[in-house]
Design a protein that fits this description.
The protein is mainly β. The protein has a domain of 107 residues: Beta Barrel (Thrombin, subunit H), CATH 2.40.10. The chain contains 1 helix and 7 strands; from the N terminus they run E-E-E-E-E-E-E-H. It has a 6-stranded antiparallel barrel with strand order 1-2-5-6-7-4.
Length: 157
């Protein structure tokens, strides 16, 4: 399960608005057992790979994942990007749709539309904490400057 290098493109009307370099790999999905007599699924142990599910109403725009590695329709991919403002990684879980391939500079390139469905819990919590710190620093009153009073050294009568 090595990391593959690729690019995440945000498009509007087919034209790229922004492109960032990302790492991605295929996700291994494990089902959590149900509690007896209910439809509720509860994790049996704490895991590093816990994700918050994104609201379906959240629209991130037309996003596509571009890379030299093969990915298929309906494949679940973990995309890792760096949040530039804080220089910390952020992992997102997404589903690839509408995969196309083409040749660019004598290399086969795969492009797939991607719909993000979840964000990594640990990364998201760290991002919120960093953002809270930044806000606290911005709203904190500036340190008061020490004013120097002028003392006359040569007193004239």
């Amino acid at each position: 399960m090595g990391l593959n290098k690729g690019w995440l493109e945000r498009r509007k009307n087919g034209k790229p608005l922004s492109i960032i370099e990302v790492n991605f790999h295929r996700a291994i999905i494990k089902k959590i057992p149900k509690l007896k007599g209910t439809k509720i699924r509860v994790p049996t142990r704490s895991s590093d790979e816990t994700y918050y599910v994104l609201d379906k109403k959240v629209d991130l725009g037309e996003l596509s994942l571009v890379g030299n590695n093969v990915f298929n329709n309906n494949e679940i991919i973990v995309v890792q990007m760096t949040v530039a403002q804080f220089r910390i990684p952020l992992r997102l879980l997404g589903k690839v749709t509408q995969v196309t391939s083409y040749v660019e500079y004598k290399r086969l390139v795969f492009e797939g539309a991607i719909k993000f469905t979840a964000v990594h819990k640990g990364d998201f919590d760290l991002l919120l904490e960093m953002d809270d710190r930044r806000r606290m620093q911005q709203t904190a009153p500036p340190p008061t400057a020490v004013t120097k009073s002028k003392i006359p050294f040569g007193y004239k009568k």
